[in-house]
Amino acid sequence: MSSVRLLVLGVILRRGITHGYGVHQDLTSWRADTWTSVKPGSIYHAMDKLEAQGMIRAEHSGDSVKRGPSRTEYTLTPEGKAEFRSLLEEALKSHDFQYLAAGIAFMEMLPRHQVIALLEERLTAVQQSAAFLRTLPTEALPSDPSKHPELVGLWAGYMDYAVAATQTLLQSLQSGKYAFIDEKSEMEGLKHDGSHLT
User: Fold this and answer.
1) Is position 48 within any domain?
2) Which of 3, 113, 142, 161 has a CB 3.0–4.6 Å from the CB of 147, allowing a cystine?
3) Which residues form the Transcription regulator PadR N-terminal domain (predicted)?
């Protein structure tokens, strides 16, 4: 549910103001259902809950649609913006693959140095988990599931992949790949000063 909550808040924040269908439209166009458990029902359920918790605020749109009444649009409250940032920071450190995927989708909405620090924290944690899993005893004929070589091997392999993928992402960010929110602000400032790159 945290990944869906992060995705919904992130879409609304990116758009500034939007209705539920706009959130659904963005997540569908991103094929978010292939890398998270987000579904149409979970989007609208999350929006209802976020509104009830004061994270998003409904605003009645004056624009009428071709069929039916005008739509209710939503924008983030200050509490919603704080919640988005908290969830994003948590996602970038998470062991949960879907939550991490949602975090990567919005990582550029944080400063680069902060994303690198969060991913370095994640790297340390997954390295420790991978090392621990390699110490677990296994049995050819396991006396209980925790000693099943296939089960331990599955998790050890997943953690080894998590280590390698996190290292690759960190290398990309450290080499200057992508444009983060602090850098976009700097670029805008350069444009206004008339000193942007040609």
Assistant:
1) yes
2) 142
3) 9-85
Q: Give the alpha-carbon dihedral of 23, 25, 29, 30, to 10 degrees.
A: 10
**Cβ atoms within 10 Å of 49's Cβ, excluding its own:** 15
pTM: 0.84
Spatial separation of the C-alpha atoms in residues 50 and 70, rounded to whole Å: 21
Task: For residue 192, give every residue at least 6 positions away whose Cβ sits within 8 Å of its Cβ, in sequence order, or none.
Answer: none
Residue 22 corresponds to which tokens in the numbers above? 């706009």
Count how many domains the chain has.
2
Show contacts of 153-159: CB within 8 Å, 24+ apart: 156/130, 159/126, 159/129, 159/130, 159/133
Instruction: Report d(CA 180, CA 110) in Å as an integer.
Output: 6
Type of residue at 68: G
Helix (H) or strand (E) holding 60: strand 56-60
Could you tell me the residue range of the domain that residue 33 belongs to? 2-87
Measured CA to CA, the distance from residue 188 to residue 167 in angstroms comes to 31
Six-digit token string for 33: 């259902």
User: Using one digit for the tens of pLDDT, what is the confidence trace for 37-90?
Assistant: 888 889 999 999 999 999 999 886 555 444 344 478 999 999 999 999 999 999
In a domain, residue 96? The reply is: no
